[in-house]
């Protein structure tokens, strides 16, 4: 692989992407390059366009202007359904209503469906892979538990295992830790760290608005505000007080310890509030 530039092994290459809906510019000249083994955080306030951008990176929607190459395929020129089969997308709005056991929910990742298709039977290799992934994600004990009884944190980890069934080279996660209590969040983040170690070539993009929800294995970050990129690059530079304060339009102090990030209102701002 070449260093820099646009090598063939680039996982995502978005160049000056605009997305306009109902006359509103949701993404404005967004560019981003993701290479194998990189783990990106997509950060920004409510309504910044994070989910919209993830939809484009996941080959679920086309940009209005600009070019997007994902896993070597240019959106607009390749079959989006075919491309989607190679992308793991963890969507918190997974629309499963039946009491499918955890193991079967993971197996639906192989068929790309919500339910197990009639007459479909997993191969031995698929069963083995599902078991391994549930082990890595720490949900092996829930293989027989019905989806309807699983907690939000358990569901989240099951959905990540599901997204990994087709051995994707790209994994997209939209706010995987939202709504979890502190222990469930920590279990999920450890699972994501383990997963990244187990699949060193896989690239990931994780959306969140909470810096505390960033796994320690995050390598890069892109800050989005009102559809525009405020900063993008190595996490150590981008997840820092100055760029994050600019992105959220609020003075924020960022600290990093044991690889994890913590955010709080800047001291001057707190004094202002108290005074
Ligand atoms: N089809 C649409 N037509 C018009 N506006 C839309 C459409 N879809 C999304 N939007 C708007 O686009 C903006 C970006 O939405 P998006 O969900 O991508 O933001 P986000 O950064 O993921 O926000 P949050 O953190 O709140 O989930 C929002 O203002 C939203 O209301």
From TrEMBL:
Keyword Nucleotide-binding attributed = yes
Write down the Gene3D superfamilies for this protein, in alphabetical order. P-loop containing nucleotide triphosphate hydrolases (3.40.50.300)
Q: Which PANTHER family match?
A: SKFA PEPTIDE EXPORT ATP-BINDING PROTEIN SKFE
Please list the residue ranges annotated as the ABC transporter domain: 12-251
Q: Which UniProt keywords apply?
A: ATP-binding, Nucleotide-binding
Report which residue ranges the record marks as coiled coil: none
> Which molecular function terms from Gene Ontology are attached?
ATP binding; ATP hydrolysis activity
Q: What is this protein called?
A: Iron complex transport system ATP-binding protein
